[in-house]
Write a structure and sequence with these properties.
single chain; alpha+beta; Jelly Rolls; six-stranded antiparallel sheet; five-stranded antiparallel sheet; 1 helix; signal; RmlC_Cupin_sf; ChrR-like_cupin_dom; Cupin domain-containing protein
Length: 163
């Protein structure tokens, strides 16, 4: 049996490297418009004025203020409360960390709220009246089809600046 020469081994190694590079290039091309974001790259800003002060928001995908799909994260401090409200569109929410307490109806009954823990999911059809609060710092991810809006059951609960 003949042993391979150094030249044939180098050619084989070069061919393998080329195949690996071609495979990586094909994979990059196949990813196209795919998007990946690590937590350290999130850009947190103050939540919009329609939410009570103290929360931070990061947009992961889309524009929640426009028609079309969106994904946002909302970071809230402990003791954060969103009074009874509703949204025009369906809202999907996943708890990333902490616990979010959710209740339905036109009044905030903290004793009747359901604790949605880390990893929990919530689907809320548009038009359904609900409220939310936290007892400790909590991060939730919200996704749906925009525009995302918030309409308070009691207009006096709306923290938006009055014109």
């Amino acid at each position: 049996m003949k042993t391979p020469s150094a030249q044939s081994m180098l050619l084989a190694a070069a061919a393998l490297l080329c195949l690996g590079a071609a495979s990586a290039a094909a994979q990059d091309a196949a990813m196209g418009d795919m998007m990946m974001i690590n937590p350290s790259a999130l850009k947190w800003v103050d939540a919009p004025p329609g939410l009570p002060k103290g929360a931070k928001l990061a947009v992961l995908y889309g524009d929640p203020g426009k028609d079309g799909p969106y994904v946002v994260r909302l970071k809230t401090p402990g003791g954060y409360k969103v009074p009874p409200h509703w949204h025009t569109q369906t809202e999907n929410l996943t708890v990333i960390s902490g616990t979010l307490y959710l209740g339905s109806g036109d009044t905030m009954d903290m004793g009747a709220a359901h604790a949605l823990k880390t990893g929990g999911f919530h689907n809320l059809p548009g038009g359904m009246h609900h409220y939310a609060f936290t007892r400790a710092a909590t991060v939730v991810q919200i996704h749906g089809t925009g525009p995302l809006d918030i309409k308070y059951v009691n207009p006096q609960d709306d923290p938006s600046p009055k014109q």
